[in-house]
Design a protein that fits this description.
44% of the residues lie in helices and 13% in strands. It is of the alpha/beta class and 495 residues long. Helix 1 (12-31) runs parallel beside helix 3 (63-76) and helix 4 packs antiparallel against helix 13. The longest helix is centred in the last third of the chain and has 36 residues, at 361-396.
């Protein structure tokens, strides 16, 4: 048999034709994205009806028809985080070069778990890690690994911290041989990944010390220091402090320099959750805000947030990469992944939880080169300026109140004219009103915001990590919010 006949292969001419058609379709989609609704208005049941309740087909269908129908399904029934009025959560508009990079990466399909399985892909990921470290202002000697996103980036660092600071027989004996409870510390505004990590990795949620924040929503470092002393006195074993570089609700950056000093004094692992905000360290005017970042033992950052990479692209950076190998390296007898070549390559399965790994680095690597550090300074600065503009317009409007503005996150509330409620009744009503407003805006398709709770106030939250957003979009959003707020207020008052 010289050649196998099958339905999975696509010949050169057909592949080229379908590829050109798909690229044309995607190009039109991206060019017209601002004219589309930000999200679909269809319910899950309606979407199921669009797909059709059919069984797995026995016979195959032509690939060109499938690509055409799949394109229409996605373009007409998705939340478009590349839309200029998408400000929800922290998913950026994705750089178009990233989409092409994913096509290229999937075509070669390297398994970036072992160097022998991914010769050049491994070197590209190494270089990408080095560039990301340089980008945020730490030594390029930091090692690291690309992962799926913020949770996995922080989990990867959490386990490395535990291996570095826990008793050395932890791998063999587990927790049963350690009478001291391993304690981690973070502010009350830290993302919920820390809760997941403590539970999933056997520490239990009681092992977390949630340190209160000060008036600026930063971790109270005096309370942190005192809490560590109390835990040591009670026979516990502190091992890790998490500082946040851009909390997900308000964008606040903790006093990283002070936390670093406390960690050094107490021989604790200093981890920075910079999944959202750490790219802003590239802005010269904000360098002081990130003082102390170079002291971190590990840093989490997400290129698919503020570096405009398509999903998935998270990253863990570690000052001493040996801590990753100590944590994750395993050598079963069927692994023939020797590293004797000149140049000091590595097997990425020894740096994290995955053995089989896709080529996430290519889209990040290409975007870093296409945009360059100066280009990122411009884009990130513009996002921050637009967030400040959002807060300024809200502050000037008689029916809006700006609550916070940090980095590229603004929080605000809708407050109706002549609201005669006072005290707790007023607070409860405004919370209900703004919560209802967020839901209406998310379902409406004109813009997409999320929410934040700031000092017990339910707020609208706009996070701008979007290179397509303009001042005109911000101005239009203010009017959309006020119009929808008025309508909801009338309905609630009637009720």
């Amino acid at each position: 048999m010289d050649k196998r006949e099958n339905s999975i292969e696509i010949n050169k001419a057909e592949f080229r034709k379908m590829g050109y058609q798909l690229i044309d379709t995607i190009s039109e989609f991206l060019d017209d994205i601002s004219d589309k609704p930000v999200t679909t208005s269809k319910s899950p049941k309606e979407l199921q009806e669009v797909l059709g309740n059919v069984s797995l087909p026995k016979e195959g269908k032509p690939a060109d028809q499938l690509l055409a129908s799949a394109s229409k399904l996605l373009f007409d029934n998705s939340l478009l985080n590349g839309h200029p009025k998408f400000f929800g959560f922290i998913t950026s508009s994705a750089a178009p070069i990233g989409a092409l990079a994913d096509l290229l990466a999937a075509s070669v399909n390297p398994n970036v778990g072992g160097q022998i399985l991914s010769p050049i892909a491994t070197e590209i990921e190494k270089q990408t890690i080095k560039w990301l470290a340089e980008f945020i202002g730490v030594s390029p000697n930091y090692g690291g690994v690309l992962v799926s996103g913020g949770n996995m980036a922080n989990f990867t660092a959490f386990l490395a911290a535990r291996t570095a600071k826990a008793p050395k027989d932890l791998k063999e004996k587990g927790f049963s041989n350690n009478s001291k409870q391993l304690i981690s510390y973070c502010s009350k505004s830290t993302h919920t990944w820390i809760d997941k990590a403590a539970i999933l990795f056997g520490h239990g949620s009681d092992s977390i010390r949630w340190i209160p924040t000060d008036d600026s929503n930063k971790m109270n470092t005096q309370t942190l220091e005192q809490t560590i002393k109390e835990d040591i006195a009670q026979g516990h074993q502190p091992f890790m402090v998490v500082g946040t570089a851009g909390d997900v609700s308000t964008g606040v950056v903790d006093n990283l320099e002070a936390i670093a000093a406390i960690c050094k004094t107490n021989d604790l692992w200093f981890h920075i959750d910079g999944a959202y905000g750490i790219p802003a360290a590239v802005i010269p005017e904000l360098k002081e805000l990130f003082n102390g970042v170079e002291e971190a033992d590990s840093i989490a950052l997400d290129p698919h947030k503020w570096l405009y990479s398509p999903l998935e692209a998270g990253c863990t950076l570690v000052k001493n990469p040996k801590h990753l190998i100590d944590t994750y390296s395993s050598h079963p007898e069927y692994y023939n992944f020797s590293l004797t070549e000149e140049g000091g390559s590595l097997n990425y399965f020894e740096y994290g939880l995955q053995n089989s790994r896709g080529f996430r680095a290519l889209k990040v690597w290409l975007a870093l080169q296409q945009i360059g550090s100066d280009g990122y300074v411009k884009l990130i600065s513009e996002d921050i300026a637009l967030s400040k503009y959002f807060a300024e317009l809200a502050d000037k409007h008689s029916q809006l109140e700006a609550i916070t503005q940090n980095l590229s996150i603004a929080t605000l509330r809708y407050i109706p004219k002549n609201l005669d409620l006072v005290g707790e009744e007023r607070t409860e009503y405004l919370n209900t009103l703004n919560e209802t407003l967020v839901t209406k805006l998310q379902e409406g398709g004109e813009l997409f915001l999320s929410n934040a709770i700031v000092k017990e106030h339910y707020c609208m939250r706009a996070c701008i990590v979007n290179f397509r957003t303009t001042k005109k979009d911000i101005e239009e959003c203010i009017e959309i919010i006020v119009k929808a707020g008025c309508e909801i207020h009338k309905l609630l008052i009637q009720q």
